[in-house]
């Protein structure tokens, strides 16, 4: 669906149980022969996949703008990071084969064997990038993969499937099924499925984790987040304000690594009026327009949920300093638009603080010291990411040592792995209620 107009772009039927079983059978049958191919040949196929994807760049960007609702800049950023992740997988070296140790009394080898059929369940907000976190590594190491994309944004996965075919991958190495929770449950119940990587909502993640665990499958679930940004008075003001606005409102706040809470330490709270000015300068609209800097939310239900959380925060005593609830865009009366929203006087008990909002809403809190800010971050049940804005190496070291969150940034607006550290090839560092599995 085109999020700016509510017009249908395409319809994709839910995969039936026989179709799910057929996909699992195809992946299971293809896996032994795929694993028997020398690793350098599997790596070469990934380079062919890069070329096939690059030939489809314009189609992928169009999908991300129209179906997901991204701006062209956000779409290009996702595309580039997806290619980076894929190229990073091709650079994975000897560690995928195992290790060797020698001592005076014995020699020890570890040999890494493919698991078999792996499943990737991905969310709507990054339908190109997130599958490329795990799928290239899984394929490189001799596994076959079934991708179950979000039913809200199914089209990009079909382009990706075409690219696998055009790159010459054997049938069954990469498969796509569609649907919602029933399709995921059907996949998890199939004996040949050995591992699941899930990225998405907290409720869905808990269901996947419990189902996978009950069926004795390896599982890695990445779900909800409440990422804090801590602003010290010695931070670079202009750079910090634009970083905060970009992190909170980029992709309409619909990303797991968005900074959704700002803890202003001491007098840095005085920067708040200028933050409102920066946020107010963002142009909300349809991403097809190159002047637009923030697009719509994914569905009307998503918009209604975010608006309800803003309303509840206001009722609980919070102050809506910048209100995006009445946002309208000329020419798009039915779009799921919500303007940048900044809320102050936030307390820890409020639902807006306790839950992931997943919209363009930034909560602002004043604290007295860096220690107080660290306590706020550590007391929150989520552990996805956090960042500190400062010019002090001492403050940065204290924050890094004492904060209990998996991914920590210093003067970084959005935490994202470097090219050399693709998400699929390193252990995930998210913790607390943001991660389930191993």
TrEMBL record:
Molecular function GO labels: methylmalonate-semialdehyde dehydrogenase (acylating, NAD) activity
SUPFAM superfamilies: ALDH-like (SSF53720)
Biological process annotations from GO: L-valine catabolic process; thymine catabolic process
CC annotations in GO: mitochondrion
Domain of life: Eukaryota
Cross-referenced Pfam families: Aldedh
UniProt keyword Nucleotidyltransferase, yes or no: no
Positions of transmembrane segments: none
Entry keyword set: NAD, Oxidoreductase
Leader sequence residues: none
InterPro entries according to UniProt: Ald_DH/histidinol_DH, Ald_DH_C, Ald_DH_CS_CYS, Ald_DH_N, Aldehyde_DH_dom, MeMal-semiAld_DH
EC number(s) per entry: 1.2.1.27
Domain Aldehyde dehydrogenase: start-end pairs: 4-419
Membership in a protein family: Belongs to the aldehyde dehydrogenase family.
Name the record gives this protein: methylmalonate-semialdehyde dehydrogenase (CoA acylating)
Lineage, uppermost ranks: Eukaryota, Fungi, Dikarya, Ascomycota, Pezizomycotina
């Amino acid at each position: 669906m085109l999020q700016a107009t509510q017009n249908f772009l395409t319809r994709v039927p839910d995969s039936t149980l026989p179709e799910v079983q057929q996909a699992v059978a195809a992946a299971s049958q293809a896996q032994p022969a795929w694993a028997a191919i020398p690793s350098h040949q599997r790596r070469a196929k990934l380079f062919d996949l890069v070329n096939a994807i690059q030939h489809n760049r314009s189609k992928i960007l169009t999908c991300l703008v129209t179906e997901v609702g991204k701006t062209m800049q956000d779409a290009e950023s996702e595309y580039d990071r997806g290619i980076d992740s894929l190229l990073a997988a091709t650079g994975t070296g000897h560690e995928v084969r195992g290790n060797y140790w020698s001592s005076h009394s014995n020699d020890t080898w570890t040999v890494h064997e493919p698991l078999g059929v792996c499943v990737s369940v991905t969310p709507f907000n990054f339908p190109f990038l997130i599958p490329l976190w795990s799928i290239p590594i899984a394929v490189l190491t001799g596994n076959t993969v079934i991708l179950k994309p979000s039913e809200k944004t199914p089209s990009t996965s079909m382009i990706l499937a075409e690219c696998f075919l055009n790159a010459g991958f054997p049938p069954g190495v990469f498969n796509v099924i569609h649907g919602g929770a029933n399709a995921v449950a059907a996949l998890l119940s199939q004996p040949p499925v050995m591992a699941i990587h899930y990225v998405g909502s907290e409720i869905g993640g808990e269901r996947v984790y419990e189902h996978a665990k009950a069926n004795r499958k390896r599982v890695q679930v990445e779900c909800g987040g409440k990422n804090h940004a801590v602003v010290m008075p010695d931070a670079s003001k202009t750079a910090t304000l634009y970083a905060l606005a970009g992190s909170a409102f980029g992709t309409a706040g619909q990303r797991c690594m968005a900074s959704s809470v700002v803890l202003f330490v001491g007098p840095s709270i005085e920067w708040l009026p200028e933050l409102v000015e920066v946020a107010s300068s963002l142009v909300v609209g349809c991403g097809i327009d190159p002047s637009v800097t923030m697009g719509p939310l994914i569905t009307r239900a998503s918009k209604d949920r975010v608006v309800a959380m803003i309303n509840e925060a206001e009722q609980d005593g919070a102050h809506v300093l910048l209100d995006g609830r009445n946002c309208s865009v000329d020419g798009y009366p039915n779009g799921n638009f919500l303007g940048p929203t900044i809320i102050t006087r936030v307390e820890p008990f409020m639902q807006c603080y306790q839950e992931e909002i997943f919209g363009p809403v930034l909560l602002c809190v004043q604290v007295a010291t860096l220690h107080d800010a660290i306590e706020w971050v550590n007391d929150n049940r989520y552990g996805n990411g956090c960042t500190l804005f400062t010019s002090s190496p001492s403050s940065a070291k204290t924050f890094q040592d004492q904060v209990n969150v998996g991914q920590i940034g210093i003067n970084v607006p959005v935490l994202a792995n470097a090219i050399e550290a693709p998400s699929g090839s390193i252990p995930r560092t998210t913790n607390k209620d943001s991660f389930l599995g191993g």
